[in-house]
Write a structure and sequence with these properties.
Structural class: mainly alpha
Mean pLDDT: 91
Order of helices and strands: HHHHEHEEH
Shape: elongated
Number of strands: 3
Strand order of the largest sheet: 1-3-2
Length: about 160
């Protein structure tokens, strides 16, 4: 009953407190604060995104460590690439990566990971979510190897976390 009436208790409390802080205390404003606290979270609930279910927390922990290490090593590689740019210009390229991910939360996490790792920029997601286009600052080696590594390091753990 309480969960149905107050689906987001913090939001309800904040709305009521804000209303009472902005207005003179009176029984009428107390009633309005109570109505706001009940109605606004109920009316705005359909607008909030659904929560994603994390199924394998140990895979998530491993992914966080992997991304943390990749952020550090990629930052050093990009710095070296920038400093050595006159001698050896970076091999910047767009790479299209086919995706198996379909879950919106997993795709959002992949976008955050890609953005956080220096040297890669998420450029485009296909309308049917079947592939994404990345810009890679300095692609070393074969494109197929980069795609396989990207999928193995980031997409596969996200599949296990959100879609297994």
């Amino acid at each position: 009953m309480m969960k149905r009436l107050f689906p987001n208790p913090l939001l309800s409390a904040a709305l009521a407190a804000l209303w009472l802080l902005l207005n003179q205390p009176s029984p009428g404003h107390l009633l309005i604060a109570l109505l706001l606290a009940i109605l606004m979270p109920l009316l705005s609930a359909p607008l909030r995104p659904q929560r994603g279910a994390v199924r394998r927390p140990w895979v998530l922990a491993r992914l966080i460590l992997t991304v943390g290490g990749d952020v550090q090593s990629s930052a050093l590689q990009v710095a070296r690439g920038v400093l050595a740019g006159r001698r050896r210009p970076p091999n910047g390229r767009f790479v299209r990566i086919p995706l198996a991910l379909r879950d919106a939360h997993a795709l959002a996490a992949l976008a955050v990971i890609t953005t956080a790792v220096p040297g890669t920029v998420w450029s485009e997601l296909a309308a049917d979510r079947s592939s994404l286009l990345l810009h890679v600052f300095d692609l070393q080696g074969e494109e197929a190897d980069f795609i396989a590594q990207y999928k193995q390091r980031y997409e596969q753990p996200l599949l296990e976390i959100f879609e297994a």
